[in-house]
Amino acid sequence: MKPARREVSLADTHRLIPSKYSPSGTVLAGLAEKGEDGFVRDLVSIDAATNARLKADEGLLPGISVHELVYGISYANIVNAAFAHASPFGGRFNTSQRGAWYAGVERGTSIAEVAFHKLRELEEVSWSEEEVSTCDDYMADFHAEFESLFAKGSQDFAGYLKAGPIPACYAKSQRLALELTEHGSNGIIYPSVRKPGGTCVVCFRPALVYHVRRDGRFEFRLKAGRRFNASQSRQVSITT
């Protein structure tokens, strides 16, 4: 049974991304601005040649058209990067060919989702020390029709919201997303898998990510094997 489409109006949703991606489209750009060293400039050129967002700008990625990307708005590079930088295994509602904009309707939901995946990364590499990192909160609004995975009556969407194992648990939900996008879907609103009672939204269309602005910066102190709780994240100031 397919989810129902409904009008969604959401303000101040939260997407947390690593702070190193905030200043510019390349993590090496800051080095290039500090001098005329040819070696550094070459590094930036190499980075640009392999940067998926820049390839998308030039129409070189198979999963996203240059005509779908956004330009001339605040944080356009942040929006475009979400669709150009898909992980090798994709996400819950996207494949490796095309990314999507995931966000938590509540900030706590976004924090819980990010913490889960960061802890999983630490466990995969057997990193035993406490890892300290920061993420910036990018807020966005959505006013469009989305599919809803909130069950009503006899509808049961649990098969699309499995907690694990990753990435195998994404197979069914990725197939759903592909089918929905082929039929013009804008995205999905669904219960958070990592935050009980939380709500997530995934947007399939860059142009529908409205009014993007950077809000707070959050520090995470995570350790593999230690269960995450709210005390392991805190808001910190942003140094510009």
How is this structure best described in words?
The protein has helices at residues 29-32, 38-50, 52-57, 76-84, 107-124, 171-182; strands at 4-18, 101-104, 131-148, 187-191, 199-203, 210-222, 233-236. It is an alpha+beta fold and 240 residues long. 26% of the residues lie in helices and 27% in strands.
Shape: globular
CA-atom Rg in angstroms:
18 Å
pLDDT average, as an integer? 87
Report the biggest beta sheet as strand number plus sense, adding barrel if it closes.
7 strands, mixed
Count the E strands.
7
| Helix and strand pattern | EHHHHEHEHEEEE
How many domains would you count in the coordinates?
1
How much of the sequence lies in strands comes to 25-35%
Structural class: alpha+beta
Q: Which regions contain 5 or more consecutive residues with pLDDT less than 50? A: 24-35, 43-50
Percent range of helical residues = 25-40%
Number of separate helices: 6
From the N-terminal CA to the C-terminal CA, the straight-line distance is 49 Å
Secondary structure layout plus pairing:
Elements: E1 4-18, H1 29-32, H2 38-50, H3 52-57, H4 76-84, E2 101-104, H5 107-124, E3 131-148, H6 171-182, E4 187-191, E5 199-203, E6 210-222, E7 233-236
Parallel strand pairs: 3-4
Antiparallel strand pairs: 1-3, 2-5, 3-6, 4-5, 6-7
What is the compact description of this entry?
The protein has helices at residues 29-32, 38-50, 52-57, 76-84, 107-124, 171-182, and strands spanning 4-18, 101-104, 131-148, 187-191, 199-203, 210-222, 233-236. It is α+β, with helices and mostly antiparallel strands and 240 residues long.
